[in-house]
Amino acid sequence: MTGQKTTKKLRSQEWFDNPDNPGMTALYLERYLNFGLTREELQSGKPLIGIAQTGSDLSPCNRHHIELAKRVRDGIVAAGGVPFEFPCHPIQETGKRPTAALDRNLAYLSLVEVLYGYPLDGVVLTIGCDKTTPALLMAAATVNIPAIALSVGPMLNGWHKGKRTGSGTVVWESRERLSAGEIDYDQFMDIVASSAPSVGYCNTMGTATTMNSLAEALGMQLPGSAAIPAPYRERGQISYDTGRRIVDMVREDLKPSDIMTREAFENAIVVNSAIGGSTNAPIHLNAIARHLGVPLDNDDWQQVGHHVPLLVNLQPAGEYLGEDYHHAGGVPAVVAELMKAGLLPHPDAITANGRTMGENCAATETMDAKVIRPVAEPLKANAGFINLMGNLFDSAIMKTSVISKEFRDRYLSNPADPEAFEGTAKVFDGPEDYHARIDDPAESIDENTVLFMRGAGPVGYPGGAEVVNMQPPAYLIKRGIHSLPCIGDGRQSGTSGSPSILNASPEAAVGGGLALLKSGDRVRIDLRKGTADILVGDDEIARRRAELQADGGYHFPGHQTPWQEIQRGMVDQLAQGMVLKPAVKYQRVAQTKGIPRDN
Ligand code: FES
Ligand code: MG
User: Which GO terms describe its molecular function (predicted)?
Assistant: First the structure.
């Protein structure tokens, strides 16, 4: 499959070299000639390579791709291809309201149309900021033309008063200090700004570092590509190498479906545990898998990934940041450590460079064992997710490795039942409701309260908001209680270390059990059994469900844009990858649907 050239006619030739239909061929050709390309370049069978550009002024995390694309182009030309750079729908995690997640499927949808409807033989996916990575990989999965991903790379390490300040993570910490009156508004702003010292994506192990690392673990990037910081010399060099490589991938017809197999997803799940990856990862990987027709669900995340230890010492679970991760060896070093302990399930999975994951990584030495630990000395055991279910929801993800000692002592200290706890529910309908009520003493929130956030899923919010990790009331923080158990049908930022129960599916807005919960209900969570239940009788649940139905179901704010309405009408739940349901049946479109009709 790899290393061998195919004799297949390139799909771009269907546009540019068709003597049976010279009129159309001339029309396709002329506009691409008028910016300096020649007939020789377009008609002689050189692969046409798209560069799916996600960088723009609206997407500062990925903006450096505008520079890197120049090196990608050089690599494409050097290998005998012709580069075609085009813009993707911008997605900025921190800038887009109501949430960047709303736009993941929109960017996906538009890229599918571009990859299929234009004369592209292969594509370089410029990934980085949280949702850009899954959006582009999902589109490459659906169309299934040869594709390779290129990370923009993390920002440099942030520093403030001699301490590393990590993107996002420092916001959560400093917000608590602001609430406790330890710092003022200006000091808060200075600390947070220090955490974003350069171009690049978040330097913590948030969703961006997670998804870029997993794109590499899936085999979709050149080895070592994920962790190189954006401003580094090597970042330009690997951009050039990526441009060169995609041309050969077209010649070898090495497609996303050849690389992103079930085995590759299992490797990625194991790497996700070892890096301490974000709880957003199951949503996005389940989505990519669905677009390829590879079976993958949240049970697989627990089965394949829960027992794997945490090796990477990056914030929020640990101390270090992106530059340290790169210096220690990045993803290849993590994979090598896993391989030494026999924990990488499929070393023979093929990757974008035509070699296997094992061949690429086995010889990589870890350069800093404080940052990437050996399996024998992990930061934490059992770092993967568990998949909870019960009468509150069918599936929700929890990262047990971030449970703090304070939390464990307070909630999981009953010797007879060390992995279970009960509490009294306090229910919030959306983040506005939370902010309005959390500090009100009349709500009588105390250390036995379990905070619930609902109305925050793909339909309710819409898009699924990162609002489930809720800070306790200021009066509890002042008493030294820094976290309460949080459960919800929304998501949590990967930069937050809260041990929340997240991504609950089905969400309240589509009639999930959370819609029936009332403040004051007792709830019981059992981590060993993997259950989460409201402790009220079946009769009472049936009565509440009838009442909810009579009231027209769970209420949430109306649509504000056409896309909000369109997506709400067809989006699946977080546990199922939040994909657009009608899109899933379109698989390997470049092979199954042939070439589009002449225009
Ligand atoms: Fe864009 Fe974190 S906000 S990478
Ligand atoms: Mg986020």
Answer: dihydroxy-acid dehydratase activity; iron-sulfur cluster binding; metal ion binding
Q: Which CATH architecture has domain 392-551?
A: 3-Layer(bba) Sandwich (3.50)
Instruction: State whether residue 27 is helix, strand or coil.
Output: helix
Handedness of CA 449, 573, 266, 334 (dihedral sign): negative
Cis, bond preceding 98 (omega within 30 deg of 0): yes
CA distance 397 to 288: 18
For 391-423, how does the pLDDT look when each residue is reduced to its tens digit (9 = 90+)?
Answer: 999 999 998 877 888 888 888 888 888 889 999
Q: What single letter denotes the amino acid at residue 113?
A: E
Query: pLDDT tens for residues 494-517?
Result: 777 677 999 999 999 999 999 999
| Beta-sheet pairing, 147-151 with 158-160 | unpaired
* Strand-pair category, 449-454 with 486-488: parallel
**pLDDT for position 1:** 43
For tokens 């061949």, name the residue. Answer: 359
Q: Is the CB of 84 under 6 A from ligand 1?
A: no
Q: Is the CB of 96 under 6 A from ligand 1?
A: no
Is 61 touching ligand 1 by the criterion CB < 6 Å? Answer: yes
| Cα gap 322→164, rounded to integer Å | 11
Strand order of the sheet with strand 122-127?
A: 82-87, 48-53, 122-127, 147-151
User: Which parts of 88-179 fold into alpha helices (H)?
Assistant: 101-117, 132-143, 169-179
Residue nearest to atom 2 of ligand 1 (CA): 202
Domain boundaries, the chain: 158-196, 392-551
Sign of the Cα pseudo-torsion (206, 210, 211, 216, in order): positive
Q: Which pair of tokens denotes residue 245?
A: 């490589």
SS3 letters across 39-66? HHHHHCCCCEEEEEECCECCEHHHCCHH
